[in-house]
Design a protein that fits this description.
7 helices; mainly alpha; Arc Repressor Mutant, subunit A; Rna Polymerase Sigma Factor, Chain: A; 170 residues; 2 domains
Length: 170
């Protein structure tokens, strides 16, 4: 039989996940470029990571920042693991997904692909910015100053714009 302390922990964890499920999905979807089966795998890994570290959250940062950091670190770990594994063609690559035909979706996918080519730390910073985190929150997450974050984001935006223009012959 479950103790009331254990039951309370599970309820608190479930409430945390519900409060941040959209952000978790967004982080995983960006990483997987919208491939549904990979997004689901990523979300499961994030849930495992969150559960493992749930009892040690010290509230030195906001709950949202902590969830974002755990999800992003999990996503980066999965990306490094995938980069080390042998490349094989998947039938999933050839499947047509209805979401792929939505207007404006190609630009978003292209932006995510360009972000994926950036060094890991820069990709993390620009994703945090695109996810709506303030410069102050990003500075806390990365251990940088607010000024350094603002400068880095300005440079990354300029770099991404140039990469986009080059790739699209604009």
């Amino acid at each position: 039989m479950e103790s009331s302390e254990s039951h309370g922990r599970i309820e608190n964890f479930n409430a945390l996940v519900l409060r941040h499920k959209a952000m978790i999905w967004h982080i995983c979807s960006d990483y997987t470029l919208g491939k549904a089966w990979k997004t689901e795998d990523c979300i499961q890994e994030v849930m495992i990571s969150l559960w493992r570290s749930f009892g040690t959250f010290e509230q030195r940062s906001s709950e949202k920042t902590w969830v974002w950091r755990v999800a992003t670190n999990t996503m980066l770990m999965l990306k490094r693991k995938e980069d080390r594994s042998p490349k094989t063609e998947s039938i999933e690559e050839f499947r047509v997904d209805e979401k792929d035909d939505e207007p404006g979706n190609e630009k978003y996918k292209q932006l995510q692909q360009l972000i994926n080519t950036l060094p890991e730390e820069n990709g993390t910073v620009i994703r945090a910015f695109l996810d709506g985190f303030s410069y102050k929150e990003i500075a806390e997450m990365t251990g940088s100053s607010v000024g350094a974050v603002a400068m880095r984001i300005a440079r990354l935006k300029r770099k991404l714009r140039l990469m986009y223009e080059r790739e699209n012959n604009l």
